[in-house]
């Protein structure tokens, strides 16, 4: 094959990869919790789980942990005064109830049989964690409730870093009128300051990547959900977008020293999780998980945190913006170096720095950062795409074809699921 024909093929493959960009890649998850922190969940199984599937042993082994450094408080021990003093805008808390979800909703209306019977053909908003976050809580993918529960939720959890779809539907929460049976403690209710609510449903391995929002309440009727939390003044290692939560869990979390690990805990069925405004958080579902999310509508503290000079997300966005508007490449380089210095797990900063160094004709250094990004998150499609472009631009067409073909094949396969 001549060099010109290889170049043509590389460019065609690059175009295919760019067109497919956005899907996540599979990979084997590493053990993500130290052995001495891992334990099986409680042995007793609840008799009534609403007909939803509990996690299999592989999901429990990969996703469950007994590690919990977030306070868990009984609703009987938490009044408004204590909540305001210890938790409001200050600390997350898991609130337990003597009778579980029955103390604050009607669990039967969240059962699989009830929802299939009454809303089986209703089209639900679905998507992966990144698709929903990039859409600011919305997605253009829709499946009927029955199709989602029969096909997408029944795919076996393989312990991979592939992003799994879940239901995140604002309209359905209102349509099913869940709010009429909701009985929150007064300090969580804030009737004049809560949004319309969001219905969520997902299987093992589904979940949401790191993000922030207004004061939130995650009320879980059935299932288990593992939370990872950082305070508003500390960007999560690895940054926010573009990693899915399973990519972060597989490749970043195991590398974190103890002092950089998040606050975390597994939320059990019937518990309500309070997350303060501006706190970074990500979640992974363990078994079929169903519930609601409620947010306050008014900002209180987040503006201050957006301008925190130690917030690396602001620096990443500034560097990307400055690069887009034609800023000096040396200054853009220095900004990305600053991000890496503060957050050595930020894969976006590594491959972005590689691109900037390539523009400065510092090719050896550029390739070094591309390879560091690939090592950090081996299955991340955008890293391979940018590295493939680099290989094309430096005349290494055979290598580019190999990199880009591999990526396009993997992405295509996972877009079919």
TrEMBL record:
Coiled-coil ranges per UniProt: none
Keyword Signal: yes
InterPro entries found in the cross-reference section: Cupin_8, JmjC_dom, JMJD6_ArgDemeth/LysHydrox, TPR-like_helical_dom_sf, TPR_rpt
Domain JmjC positions: 173-311
Entry keyword annotation includes Disulfide bond: no
Pfam families reported for this sequence: Cupin_8, TPR_17
Protein name: JmjC domain-containing protein
Lineage, opening ranks: Eukaryota, Metazoa, Spiralia, Lophotrochozoa, Mollusca
């Amino acid at each position: 094959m001549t060099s010109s024909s290889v170049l043509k093929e590389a460019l065609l493959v690059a175009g295919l990869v760019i067109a497919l960009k956005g899907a996540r890649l599979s990979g084997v998850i590493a053990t993500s919790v130290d052995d001495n922190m891992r334990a099986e969940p409680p042995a007793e199984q609840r008799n009534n789980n609403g007909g939803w599937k509990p996690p299999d042993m592989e999901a429990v082994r990969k996703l469950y942990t007994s590690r919990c450094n977030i306070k868990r408080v009984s609703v009987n021990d938490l009044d408004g005064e204590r909540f305001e003093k210890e938790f409001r805008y200050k600390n997350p808390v898991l609130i337990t109830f003597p009778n579980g979800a029955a103390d604050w909703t009607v669990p039967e209306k969240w059962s699989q049989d009830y929802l299939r019977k009454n809303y089986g053909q209703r089209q639900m908003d679905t998507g992966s964690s990144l698709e929903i976050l990039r859409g600011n809580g919305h997605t253009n993918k829709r499946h009927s409730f029955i199709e989602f529960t029969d096909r997408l939720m029944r795919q076996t959890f393989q312990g991979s870093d592939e992003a799994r779809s879940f239901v995140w539907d604002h309209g359905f929460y209102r349509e099913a009128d869940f709010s009429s049976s909701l009985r929150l403690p007064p300090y969580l209710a804030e009737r004049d300051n809560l949004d319309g609510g969001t219905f969520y449903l997902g299987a093992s391995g589904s979940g949401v990547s790191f993000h922030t929002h207004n004061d939130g309440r995650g009320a879980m009727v059935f299932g288990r959900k593992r939370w990872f939390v950082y305070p508003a003044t500390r960007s999560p290692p690895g940054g926010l977008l573009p990693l899915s939560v399973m990519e972060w869990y597989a490749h970043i979390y195991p590398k974190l020293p103890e002092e950089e690990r998040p606050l975390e805990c597994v939320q059990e069925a019937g518990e309500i999780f309070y997350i303060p405004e501006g706190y970074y958080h990500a979640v992974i579902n363990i078994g079929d998980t169903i519930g609601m999310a409620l947010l306050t509508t008014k900002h209180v503290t987040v503006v201050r945190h957006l301008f925190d000079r130690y917030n690396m997300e602001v620096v990443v966005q500034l560097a990307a913006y400055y690069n887009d508007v034609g800023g000096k490449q040396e200054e853009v380089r220095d900004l990305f170096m600053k991000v890496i210095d503060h957050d050595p797990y930020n894969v976006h900063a590594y491959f972005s720095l590689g691109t900037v160094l390539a523009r400065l004709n510092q090719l050896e250094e550029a390739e070094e950062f591309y390879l560091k990004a690939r090592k950090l998150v081996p299955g991340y499609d955008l890293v391979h795409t940018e590295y493939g472009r680099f290989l094309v631009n430096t005349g290494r067409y055979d290598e580019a074809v190999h990199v880009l073909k591999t990526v396009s094949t993997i992405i295509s396969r996972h877009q079919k699921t």
